[in-house]
Specification:
By secondary structure, the chain is α+β, with helices and mostly antiparallel strands. The protein is built from 15 helices and eight strands. β1 and β2 form a beta hairpin.
């Protein structure tokens, strides 16, 4: 690492400074230099140069960069997001990044402070939504999460020494428990599907009977369905992006096997008979190669962003406002846990990567069990703590 001091003639007199050759930018290949000036004496500039060189050699000083936040984010999308994120996730990240651009876009990356970030989050919370409406706390926290992850990459790239996002205090998250469809409500929903939206009936039955995610349902093929042994193989998911739909691996990246109740098997068999009729009507125009369980009338993929609204609309017609396709998955998990099915079993069935995720999402399902556990413990331990029943009566307060 090379450096030198230099003298400058200014209107108010002579000042001294130093310059260090920092090598080439790892991303752009441009030559980088570290400058600092304004020292009154040459000796001061020499001392500052020595300290800077020591910091660089020790690795405590990061290479400076001329990049603005906007330029950095673009590079981050190219070098990081494109390699490590799904197309859908990258699209969502771009939407989140757009919220930060009006405030941070032209700011030098190394000039971003925790205060600047908290001001951004505050502005978004007040008027960052459409037509100047407040942006939800959830969305603000997602923007903050993207910025934090991106700036962590900046540290790895030696563009920053510390992550200013790590010091920010974020607005408290709003907790909204997912809706659960009660037994009586579910019968209304299924009856409505039979009459008003027959194409949704088998999908609704399978969703609530298996707990599959929307993308997993829409990517399901008949070759994945062993109806004789009543089991599904879940190994892929359908994702919708701006470029169209595509099939990817499941969220966990692993295949899982989901045993089915008889009601789901019966619904799938009836659904297949109806689909065979459509296959015959469309003839060679039917997309038989896709082998989809849930498909458009001509056998092609159903778009996820049309299926979800259809289920919500169906639920609203039944007077079940707020019920969605995801509510059916949530209902499945909640019912299993409330009936005493072990947590690891439910977690595997839902395709969670670990039981901690299942426990956090479905904590409400354990409340009745916890109350029952307290009663059981009390009955078992009462005599141990208080002695015989007669002794217990004596020590109880009147």
């Amino acid at each position: 690492m090379k450096g030198c001091t230099f003298k400058r003639k200014m209107a108010h007199g002579i000042t001294w400074g130093y310059s260090i050759d920092m090598g080439k930018d790892e991303v752009t290949g441009k030559r980088l230099r570290k400058f600092e000036s304004g020292f009154a004496k040459k000796g001061d500039a020499d001392d500052a140069l020595k300290r800077a060189l020591v910091e660089i050699e020790d690795g405590t000083a990061a290479k400076p960069t001329p990049k603005t936040f906007s330029e950095f984010i673009e590079e981050w999308f190219k070098q990081h997001a494109a390699q490590n994120c799904t197309l859908k996730t990258a699209e969502r990240y771009r939407q989140l990044a757009a919220y930060a651009m009006p405030t941070l876009g032209k700011v030098q990356l190394r000039s971003i402070t925790p205060l600047a970030l908290e001001r951004l989050y505050g502005r978004l919370r007040e008027s960052g939504g459409q037509k100047g409406r407040p942006l939800s706390v959830k969305s603000v926290r997602h923007v903050a999460g993207l910025i934090h992850v991106a700036l962590q990459t900046a540290i790895r790239w030696k563009l920053l020494k510390v992550n200013p996002a790590s010091a920010c205090i974020l607005p408290k998250a709003e907790r909204h428990e997912a809706r659960v469809v009660e037994k009586g409500q579910l019968s209304f929903l299924l009856d409505a599907a039979r009459v008003k939206a027959e194409w949704l009936y088998a999908l609704v039955v399978l969703a609530v009977a298996s707990g599959l995610r929307r993308g997993e349902l829409l990517a399901l093929q008949w070759s994945d369905c062993d109806l004789h042994n009543a089991v599904l193989t879940v190994s892929k998911s359908l994702e919708q992006t701006r470029a169209g739909v595509r099939v990817k691996t499941t969220k966990s990246g692993k295949a899982r096997y989901v045993p089915l109740p008889s009601v789901a098997v019966d619904a799938l068999r009836a659904h297949r008979e109806q689909q065979d009729e459509l296959r015959a009507q469309f003839g060679t125009d039917y997309h038989a190669d896709k082998d989809l369980v849930f498909a458009a009338p001509w056998g092609d993929y159903l778009k996820p962003n049309t299926v979800s609204p259809a289920v919500c609309l169906l639920a609203e017609k039944c007077g079940l406002k707020g019920i969605s396709l995801h509510s059916l998955r949530h209902t499945h998990g909640s019912q299993l846990l409330s009936q005493g099915v072990p947590l690891p079993t439910v977690s595997r069935r839902l395709g969670h990567s670990n039981t901690a995720i299942t426990a956090a999402i479905y904590s409400h399902a354990f409340q009745a069990d916890e109350a029952a556990a307290a009663v059981t413990w009390n009955k078992a331990m009462e005599q141990t703590i208080l002695g015989t029943p007669a002794a217990a009566e004596k020590v109880r307060p009147s």
